[in-house]
Amino acid sequence: MSASERVCDLAEEQLLARIFPLLPTTDATLVGPGDDAAVISAPDGRFVVSTDVLVQDRHFIRDWSTGYDVGWRAAVQNLADIAAMGARPTSLVVSLVLPRTEEVHWVLELARGLAEACAPHGAGVVGGDLSSGDAIVVAVTVHGDLEGGAPVLRSGARPGDVVAHAGVLGRSAAGLDLLSGAEETTAYPDLVAAYLRPDPPIGSGARARLAGATAMLDVSDGLLRDGGRIARASGVVLDLDPLGLSSPRDLAALSAAGRALDVDPVRWVLTGGEDHGLLATFPAGADLPPEFRVVGRVLEATAERGPAVTVQGVVPDGDEGWDHFAGRGSRA
Amino acid sequence: MSASERVCDLAEEQLLARIFPLLPTTDATLVGPGDDAAVISAPDGRFVVSTDVLVQDRHFIRDWSTGYDVGWRAAVQNLADIAAMGARPTSLVVSLVLPRTEEVHWVLELARGLAEACAPHGAGVVGGDLSSGDAIVVAVTVHGDLEGGAPVLRSGARPGDVVAHAGVLGRSAAGLDLLSGAEETTAYPDLVAAYLRPDPPIGSGARARLAGATAMLDVSDGLLRDGGRIARASGVVLDLDPLGLSSPRDLAALSAAGRALDVDPVRWVLTGGEDHGLLATFPAGADLPPEFRVVGRVLEATAERGPAVTVQGVVPDGDEGWDHFAGRGSRA
């Protein structure tokens, strides 16, 4: 294979024959790729399913992200949705739209990124579809298993619960701002990597369920916006404590980048999306998995305020996160 | 809602709130849209899954297809993959990429087309994702239930089996050629509709399994090309009888359009894709579901010929069907 080989040089079946061997399989895969459909084991008589799409120039930019990065992110943001239900991922299918002039090498790197993001979590890539198109689109559907437990929904938070978060906050947004700005990015490789290849705590979803989590989601659009989703679904107030939001080490890295870009790092922590950490509520006194940090508590919604996210009792200025059609910073 | 309302006039959550009420739900949906993921019943401890993508200007053209048509086709071509495993569809998730200037009306029509294609088969639309992009992309993932039976693969055809087909052949290709040509299409509304809104026999998949089908797939890329897939996977020859391929009524409609376009209608029947009928093999003497027509028989592959599709013992001139990257008519 030469680096300049293009997908239009191959028939679809030839390209698939190059991709399939790169993809992880699992014991849950009863029939894998190559037939009209795959057959997957669902031992507890249910499966969890979610779908998420990445679009070139919307979710990634070719100059910044390698094929590996795009494959990794496509997998991870889907795996996080399964974790957010308290489930373990089992399998993914991928629809891939590619320009006919795309390099085969780039596509195989994407497959490798997908595979390496999935393999540690025991998830197989069991099927897919290819099409040509003007821009790259990666649409992933992911499935998971609840191991006989109840799914952790957004609607179960109750006054008195603690609010906790596993993963990082604001790092992906800081990395994106660094890449977008004129600033030299080499001083902040961890933040740039957090944007290009987020690494959320996928296994923490099932652990949170086992620890009694009452509500959970993954933070894809920003802590304030996603916290608001739990608040509204549960009819409660999530009151956050800024001191709990980031580890001292995280905050130090964000602060240095914030000074370089003249950005308040707290803004990244509160409104930055795409870290895909898990925001959950637990009954007071629950034995939290160690990767969860307590970041606030659940209060009753009041008649004058209604369900909301507050920071030390105050509704913050803006809850702006990402909205795909209205653009950054609009309010849903 | 005005006809000129655009998706960029709405926040993503507002658009979703318009779409969700249009989508069918089913008893198999334990948790529906609105959380991080859906939870679906899989009563026999397995599920069948397939994914298929439609891309604007590749799989449909805005001037020909309404939103309803696109939603319908996106659903049907996926449902056919589940049927082709001998399963019954239970649920779909949909990733939708839309230009920000797209009319909201068009999107809601797409949802209605999806819904009406799914509802008769008991399949719910249980989740999705929206993104902006320059061209419309509809990526559907569909799930099905095998009711405790074995999946019908492509690899199970045995010499002595009969080859049978349920659905129509060549009508979608004829409709596409009519739309593509200068010819007046109003004389052939059924053929044009067969392209815009194919209506394959989804329920026949499970019936074929119950009748003992040994191999099956849906004809998406043309009878010769898809038949070749069964032949290669099973290591056999599929010998087709042209007299069995179309009903007299079907052939009359194709012949009239063929005369108008100067196309041999047999070419549509043998190489036209996207009708999504079911091509299956059954043991000789099996009691076929009545919608299946016998179209040939399975023979031993010979040393000199190998697995192939033949028509009355002769390898046809070309097996050209659709290839997404190389374009129409290339050989995979």
TrEMBL record, chains A, B:
Mg(2+) 3 binds at D36, D81, D218. Mg(2+) 2 binds at D52, D81. InterPro entries: PurM-like_C_sf (IPR036676), PurM-like_N (IPR016188), PurM-like_N_sf (IPR036921), ThiL-like (IPR006283). Pathway: Cofactor biosynthesis; thiamine diphosphate biosynthesis; thiamine diphosphate from thiamine phosphate: step 1/1. GO terms for molecular function: ATP binding; magnesium ion binding; thiamine-phosphate kinase activity. ATP binds at G128, D129, R154, S220. Substrate binds at H59, E274, W322. Mg(2+) 1 binds at T51, D52, D129. Mg(2+) 4 binds at D36, S50, D81. GO terms for biological process: thiamine biosynthetic process; thiamine diphosphate biosynthetic process. It catalyses: thiamine phosphate + ATP = thiamine diphosphate + ADP. Its EC number is 2.7.4.16. The keyword Kinase applies. Catalyzes the ATP-dependent phosphorylation of thiamine-monophosphate (TMP) to form thiamine-pyrophosphate (TPP), the active form of vitamin B1. NCBIfam families: PRK05731.1-4, thiL. This is Thiamine-monophosphate kinase. It comes from Sanguibacter keddieii (strain ATCC 51767 / DSM 10542 / NCFB 3025 / ST-74). The lineage of its organism: Bacteria, Bacillati, Actinomycetota, Actinomycetes, Micrococcales. The gene is thiL.
